[in-house]
Automatic annotation (TrEMBL):
One of its GO terms (molecular function) is protein serine/threonine kinase activity. It comes from the Bacteria. It comes from Candidatus Limadaptatus stercoripullorum. Residues 6-140 form the VWFA domain. CDD domains: vWFA (cd00198). GO terms for cellular component: cytoplasm. This is VWA domain-containing protein.
Length: 203
């Protein structure tokens, strides 16, 4: 029996992220293929039963309202590679404006994804968040159109990741998170407070 790997990319798609979005679009299949190849032995036998990829695209509720965060379905690799590439190619970097964005809300939606964890700790549920700015405090945009009424606060977000909130479907031992963000941000604070989260500082 192999393993199921789910990857959720939470991507800042505000105007300043144009260059980064271009890199994601150009290298997405290469990145996913490399993950697949790393788990394939010399005889060509894959250790992966299923590799799925999903996107959570975020901007700012103040400027974008209910369109501030959008989610894709899970795409199965390699069967859905063309659909996946078409989806991300259609994402343009725009908006934002005031600096911090609604990235913590995007992290919440990423955590609430319908992860596959049937094989326990053999599986992997990975969230990769990429941004070039800080995040608004959870709830700061609550008065804006489209802001989710069920949104948690910062402690609630940590509770989701820690497993104290049972409404998530990732495994305690199989979850991982990589955060690419500037230092001194709420993302770094989250990473320092939570296990199985790696923070990578960006400029």
């Amino acid at each position: 029996m192999g393993r199921n790997i789910d990857i959720v990319y939470a991507l800042d798609a505000t105007g300043s992220m144009g260059g980064c979005m271009a890199n994601v679009k150009n290298n997405l299949n290469k990145i996913n293929a490399e993950i697949y190849n790393q788990l394939t032995d010399d005889a060509g036998n894959s250790q992966i039963d299923l590799l799925r990829v999903k996107f959570v695209i975020f901007r700012d509720y103040k400027s974008e309202g209910s369109a501030a965060i959008t989610e894709s379905p899970f795409f199965e690799r390699p069967d859905d590679d063309k659909l996946m590439q078409a989806y991300i190619n259609a994402v343009d970097a725009y908006g934002g404006g005031d600096g911090p964005e609604n990235g913590l809300e995007a992290m919440y939606y990423a955590m609430k994804s319908d992860f596959n964890s049937l094989n326990g700790r053999k599986d992997r549920q990975v969230i990769i968040l990429i941004t070039d700015n800080d995040a608004h405090e959870l709830g700061d945009r609550a008065a804006c159109a489209g802001y989710p009424s069920e949104m948690v606060d910062f402690d609630g977000l940590k509770g989701l990741w820690s497993g104290s909130d049972q409404s998530v479907s990732f495994g305690e031992k199989s979850k991982r998170m990589l955060i690419f963000a500037p230092a001194g941000t709420k993302y770094e604070e989250f990473a320092k407070a939570c296990a199985r989260v790696q923070f990578i500082e960006t400029d």
